[in-house]
Specification:
By secondary structure, the protein is α+β, with helices and mostly antiparallel strands. Helix content is 21%, strand content 40%. The protein has one domain. The protein has helices spanning 3-24, 168-172, 175-188, 190-193, and strands at residues 26-34, 46-49, 52-53, 56-59, 64-72, 77-83, 86-90, 96-101, 107-114, 120-125, 139-142, 148-152, 161-164, 197-198, 201-206, 211-216.
Length: 217
């Protein structure tokens, strides 16, 4: 047998073993942004985490946007920040050091900690006043923080749900203005999209069973 071919055949089972170990070290969590039932259409929201652009799915029937997050199996602490204004912080050699908030930008920041019983502790936090650095591996939701009501619920497989205010239409002025502004926000994130790799996880709706399924791409 050709020696090169033999090496390849020998390597394939080992690759499978190592891939299995890698998959066992990961877990998948579902996240959701809950809109009020009064909306007829649900806008898209850009979500980033860990250098990736997370795949989102609009659930018009459930009036929510859902996303999937892949993380280390032993990770229990997550940060979730909601803001419209992101900036890049550059190092001396002009490489990207980290993400931060634009000066004076509004935001809401939550630390969510999963307990041993799979319930969640939710605490609102503030960023450093010196550099407004966003914590590494934060879940970043590009949306108006003034629309946020609370974070609630959560299970062993689901992050606490981000619940938006019931009077969202009144705050925006109209549903059309709400949707138009969301579309503008999506366009404003195009530069950041180029810096974030597409997530390898996608979400799919099963309308018959009314469940959301995570699929590895």
């Amino acid at each position: 047998m050709n020696k090169s071919l033999f090496r390849i055949l020998l390597a394939l089972p080992l690759m499978g073993i190592f891939t299995g170990f890698a998959l066992h070290d990961k877990k998948t969590l579902m996240g959701a942004i809950q809109f009020p039932k009064s909306l007829s259409s649900i806008p898209g929201i850009r979500v980033y985490c860990g250098g990736q652009k997370l795949t989102t799915e609009i659930d018009n029937e459930g009036k929510k946007v859902v996303f999937t997050l892949s993380c280390e199996r032993n990770q229990s602490l997550f940060y979730m920040i909601i803001t419209e204004q992101l900036q890049l912080a550059l190092a001396e050699d002009n490489t990207i050091n980290h993400l931060k908030l634009a000066a004076g930008a509004s935001y809401k920041l939550f630390a969510v900690q999963q307990r041993a019983d799979h319930s969640w502790l939710v605490q609102e936090k503030r960023l450093s006043l010196t550099d407004s650095r966003i914590p590494d591996n934060s879940i970043i939701l590009c949306y108006d923080p003034n629309y946020v009501e609370t974070l609630s619920g959560g299970t062993g497989l689901e992050l606490p749900k981000l619940v938006l205010k019931d009077n969202l239409i009144q705050l925006a002025g109209s549903e059309k203005k709400l949707l138009d502004h969301a579309a503008e926000l999506m366009l404003s994130t195009l530069d950041f999209d180029a810096l974030h790799a597409p997530s390898k996880m996608a979400v799919r709706q099963d309308h018959r069973s009314k469940t959301i399924v995570a699929v590895e791409l």
